[in-house]
Design a protein that fits this description.
The complex is a heterodimer of chains A (391) and B (595). Chain A is mainly beta and 391 residues long. Chain A is 12% helix and 36% strand. Chain A folds into two domains: 208 residues, Spore Coat Polysaccharide Biosynthesis Protein SpsA, Chain A (Alpha-Beta Complex), CATH 3.90.550; 165 residues, 3 Solenoid (UDP N-Acetylglucosamine Acyltransferase, domain 1). Chain A has five helices and 41 strands. Chain A has a nine-stranded parallel beta sheet. Chain B folds into three domains: 236 residues, Glutamine Phosphoribosylpyrophosphate, subunit 1, domain 1, CATH 3.60.20; 192 residues, 3-Layer(aba) Sandwich (Rossmann fold), CATH 3.40.50.10490; 146 residues, Rossmann fold (3-Layer(aba) Sandwich). Helices cover 37% and strands 22% of the residues of chain B. Chain B has 19 helices and 25 strands. In chain B, the strands form four sheets. In chain B, strands 3-2-4-1-10-9-11-15 form an eight-stranded antiparallel beta sheet, covered by helices on one side. In chain B, helix 7 runs parallel beside helix 13 and helix 15 packs across helix 19. About 1% of the residues of chain B have low confidence. The chains are: A mainly beta (391), B alpha/beta (595). Chains A and B meet through helix 2 of A and helix 7 and helix 14 of B.
Chain lengths: 391, 595
């Protein structure tokens, strides 16, 4: 079967603080990095020879995926030293490409169905999808199944058909690639030189995280497919409702109540008397102390949450150490990211390695930078940079 | 110290043997060779590494039975003639061997008298000639007879052109048989086989195995014995580089996972605790820790940890020195640490301890290794296979094993214990932060690569860390490096300090802090540039040292873990800067199975 190139070098700057130490493709959604969904979709469609273009914080990708053996694929890594553009990223893979191939962005979450027909489509072709907010993407003008033009982030969209960034190319593409370009520019160049590019539409999942709070909606969407599974110990008096997946070596202590969909990783200690509500995913080696409630949230690896905490609609990144009585509840807030204003509704976004003293209360919409330290009894709000100290 | 492999089945043996051999190069790689049978026996060998041998071979090698060897010279210099496999006079029998034949001089003279011709200087060459002497139509019987004449240690694989089987045997050297589908394998170690099978039989001392494509029959003293295949949980993935330039860097990066796996495994397996129980029950008079190399440094850290947590005296000694002195009593609780479980000095020490009636707990990374069969209690470290000769993750796994196993029985108050357990769970994230800071450490390493002498100093728990930092640097970058207890510098080494000899100071925010500050000032006064490892937020050391690397704050008891990871990266990038062959440093082998 043919090859695929996955572009996994990008930073995802608007997703900070979560992308300070990892590329966007390594954001965890429902217990797996986004890139894993892409790789699994390819494997399920029989594409197992995969070239990964890595760059920003590439070690995170290497450490997780290794040679690909665990995921049933053969991975070859090429490095894009500077993140110039998607066409430049693709050009790095040229030496590893044998024949016709697929190109996929590693940072859009897809399912096997998304590409089932497309994986067999001959070059040159682009996979398109109808979306509600086309102005955020590259809008594709299609005439009788052929692409006329791709218009990036238009002020006004002529249609709601956008490019998924998934292409089927032959090696001929490299004649059109120039370093400073992105792939849509390359496609437009090809069209202007009378190359025919087919457009194929998909109904399958295609999800994108642009801002930190998008992690929550992606997580909720993907958790719908969770299958109940138990690899750990569940003490007596625990209620598990719906689809709850429990990892190896995890202990759920007495009187806890967990309503799925919920995914809990390996080696965790939950409870006694902890309530976890949909749609929540919890990483590996996490401790949640008694009388804590977690709802619609994403908790990373090695996190410690003290007793009597209430955590709703929040993202808590790896290695946060939270003492008891932490409160993070959601509410409508106006916040700014890169001068853009957004009306959002979430609890708290905590970056990696934050330490919170007792009884910290988070105002809705707070975004706390990595390695911040918050003393006891503090009220936190707004946007705190990395290594903030709240005394 | 060598690696041996064998193949019998329906596929061409040559390429399979080479692939298996490449995975055993960590055991030694000064020469290698293969012998393949099928319408004549063909031997290809040379004093080169496996990759180079591959280039010398004819495109097609006929034959579906073969054996191979990667050598680490003990008797006879690395050369083509001394490389294995070795043959008999008829050129029909080929043998690969790992170990030492102590009485080979005697046997050789005897065989020469009987008309045999020897071509190499090796001890091994007596084996094919002995087999030739005793061969009367049954290869297994001939090997069994030959072995009765030999004194010493061996893991061997033998084939004879025209015979439909491979014979394997072991005594005091490691050997496993891989079970395939219509094909079977022999190897010194499991990673060699992971491309082909995950089912293995671990042979015991004095076992002789008759291996065909269809099956394996294990015998002892002529009687069949039942050896059940075990499924190995390591995946072939574990033995590959996964995008990294060197195994060492990959293995350094695996450490957060190793820590997490340790916590999970030990939480889940209560019987592990029971093993350790012997240490907490009654009052152990004293504890004795024995190890070599990097494991010895882990044992030195263990001394500080166990003394703090158990409040009994702990002695740490080099396993290689223990044989020359070392008093023990039956009250002595012994802990022997060996990554491979095959380190000859460690095995010898265990045997002696056992004979003196001491209960022995072994900490090892290799399931079924020789040490596990000798010990009373075994604690497995959760590092997975380590390929790089320079130990990194196995050391961290050893420390984790010591911490985690000591904690449940520690004679400390409950609050302190709870806080230690909570801190231990936070450790993977702290180590990850060191890794995330890799680029900064690489810049310091590039500067260090300019020097020819580097000193490492520390006190208390971080004194062994200084030793380990120096060992890592010298073994892979070839920079002369020495680790010292900071208080010892003034008793001699001061004479070597100058602007051309930088000092790496490991400063922990514990009871050694003030004394370390004084040491740094003393060193500065002698003109040496000082690079200090300090806890994040420290502003005092920055004033006196030339440069600092800030490490995440951790509980002082666990500071050796994060500090060592910094020093591993420092050594790695210094070696890379100097263009050294990082995974296979000159003159070194992964596990040392000779004394």
């Amino acid at each position: 079967m043919r090859q695929a190139v996955i572009l996994a070098a990008g930073e995802g700057q608007r997703l900070r603080p979560f992308t300070v130490n990892r590329p966007k493709v390594m954001l965890f959604i429902a217990g797996k990095p986004i890139l894993q969904y892409v790789i699994e979709a390819l494997a399920q469609n029989g594409v197992r020879d995969i070239v990964l273009v890595v760059g920003y914080r590439k070690e995170q990708v290497l450490d997780y995926f290794g040679s690909g053996e665990t995921f049933g694929v053969d991975l070859t890594y090429v490095t894009q030293e500077r993140q110039l553009g998607t066409a430049h990223a693709l050009a790095q893979a040229k030496g590893a490409i044998k024949d016709d191939f697929l190109v996929l962005p590693g940072d859009n979450l897809i399912a096997a169905e998304t590409i089932d027909r497309f994986a067999a489509t001959a070059p040159e072709a682009v996979l398109v999808k109808k979306v509600e907010n086309p102005m955020r993407y590259g809008v594709v003008a299609v005439q009788r199944g052929t692409v006329k033009e791709i218009i990036e982030k238009p002020a006004e969209a002529a249609s709601n058909l956008v490019s998924t960034g998934i292409y089927s190319f032959s090696r001929a593409i490299f004649d059109f690639v120039e370093p400073q370009l992105d792939l849509p520019d390359v496609v437009n160049r090809m069209i202007s030189q009378s190359q025919k590019i087919k457009a194929l539409e998909t109904e399958g999942a295609w999800l994108d995280a642009i801002y930190p709070w998008d992690i929550l909606s992606l997580n909720a969407a993907i958790l719908q497919q969770t299958q109940a599974k138990s690899g750990g110990t569940v003490e007596t008096g625990v209620t598990l409702k719906g689809q709850v997946s429990i990892g190896k070596g995890t202990v759920i202590r007495a009187n806890s109540y967990i309503a799925g969909p919920v995914v809990i990783g390996d080696g965790c200690e939950i409870g006694p008397s902890v309530c976890i509500f949909p749609a929540t995913s919890i990483g590996n080696n996490v401790v949640i102390a008694p009388f804590t409630e977690v709802k619609n949230s994403v908790i990373g690896n090695d996190v410690n949450i003290g007793s009597g905490s209430i955590i709703h609609d929040s993202v808590i990144d790896n290695s946060c150490n939270i003492s008891g009585q932490f409160t993070a509840c959601s509410g409508q807030e106006e916040i700014a990211v890169n001068q853009e204003h957004h009306s959002v509704n979430f609890g708290a976004m905590l970056g990696e390695g934050c330490t919170l003293g007792n009884s910290v209360t988070a105002q809705p919409g707070v975004i706390v930078g990595n390695y911040s330290q918050i003393r006891s009894l503090k009220l936190i709000s707004g946007r705190l940079p990395d290594r903030s100290l709240v005394m | 110290m060598c690696g041996i492999v064998g193949y019998i089945g329906e596929r061409p043996a040559g390429p399979i043997l080479l692939k298996c051999l490449a995975r055993l190069e960590y055991r030694g790689y000064d020469s290698c060779g293969i012998a393949v049978a099928g319408g004549g026996l063909r031997v290809h060998k040379d004093a080169v590494r496996v990759e180079a041998l591959k280039g010398q071979l004819p495109r097609r090698i006929e034959g579906k039975i073969g054996i191979g060897h990667t050598r680490w010279a003990t008797h006879g210099a690395p050369s083509q003639v001394n490389a294995h496999p070795h043959c008999d006079c008829t050129g029909k029998i080929a043998v690969v061997h790992n170990g030492v034949v102590h009485n080979f001089q005697q046997l050789r003279q005897q065989l020469i008298k009987e008309g045999h011709t020897f071509v190499s200087e090796t001890d091994t060459e007596v084996i094919p000639h002995l087999v030739e002497k005793y061969f009367a139509g049954d290869l297994e019987k001939a090997v069994a007879k030959a072995l009765t004449e030999m004194e010493g240690s061996y893991a061997i694989a033998v084939l004879r052109d025209g015979e439909p089987e491979l014979i394997a045997a072991r005594k005091d050297s490691p050997l496993v048989i891989g079970i395939g589908d219509g094909e079977n394998f022999i190897a010194s170690d499991v990673p060699a086989l992971l491309d082909y099978t995950s089912r293995v039989i671990y042979l015991e001392d004095d076992d002789i195995a008759v291996i065909t494509g269809e099956g394996v029959q294990v015998k002892r003293g002529g009687n069949a014995v039942d050896r059940k295949p075990q499924r190995v949980t390591w995946s072939v993935e574990d033995a590959q580089k996964g995008g990294y330039e060197h195994f060492m860097l990959k293995e350094i990066h695996e450490q957060p996972k190793v820590i997490r796996d340790t916590i999970r495994a030990y939480l889940a397996a209560e019987e592990t605790m029971a093993d350790w129980d012997v240490l907490g029950k009654g009052d152990a008079g004293e504890m004795l820790m024995l190890a070599c190399g990097t494991s010895y440094h882990a044992a030195l850290v263990g001394k500080y940890v166990l003394e703090q947590l158990f409040k009994v005296p702990v002695r740490t000694e080099l396993a290689s020195e223990f044989g020359y002195s070392g008093q023990t009593s039956s009250q002595t609780q012994a802990i022997v640490i060996t990554q491979s479980g095959e380190t000859a000095d460690a095995l010898k020490a265990i045997k002696r301890l056992k004979s003196e009636g001491c209960p022995v707990t072994v900490l090892t990374n290799v399931v079924g290794s020789s040490a596990t069969r000798l010990a009373d209690h075994v604690v497995y470290t959760q590092a997975g296979p380590e390929i790089s000769v320079a130990a990194t993750k196995s050391y961290t796994a050893q420390l984790m094993a010591l911490y985690w196993l000591a904690l449940p029985l520690a004679r400390i108050d409950l609050r302190r214990r709870d806080s230690l357990v909570a801190e231990l769970r936070q450790l993977p994230g702290k180590v990850q932060r060191v890794l995330d800071d890799e680029e900064k450490i690489a810049r310091h390493a590039a500067q260090m690569a300019e020097y020819d002498h580097v000193f490492f100093i520390g006190r208390g728990l971080n004194y062994p860390v200084a030793l380990e930092g120096a060992l890592k640097l010298k073994e892979i970058s070839y920079i002369h490096a020495e680790g010292y207890a900071a208080g010892e510098l003034k008793h001699g080494p001061f004479a070597l300090l100058s602007s051309q000899a930088p000092v790496v100071a490991i400063v922990a925010p514990d009871n050694t802090y003030d004394a370390m500050l004084t040491s740094i000032k003393e060193v500065k006064a002698r003109g040496s540039p000082v690079l200090a490892l300090v806890a994040e937020g420290d502003e005092v050391v920055e004033e006196v040292a030339d440069s600092v690397i800030a490490v995440p704050k951790v509980e002082p008891l666990f500071s050796p873990v994060v500090n060592t990871v910094v020093l591993q990266l420092l050594a790695y990038y210094a070696a890379k800067q100097r263009g050294c062959p990082i995974d296979f440093p000159r003159n070194l082998a992964k596990s040392v199975t000779v004394e």
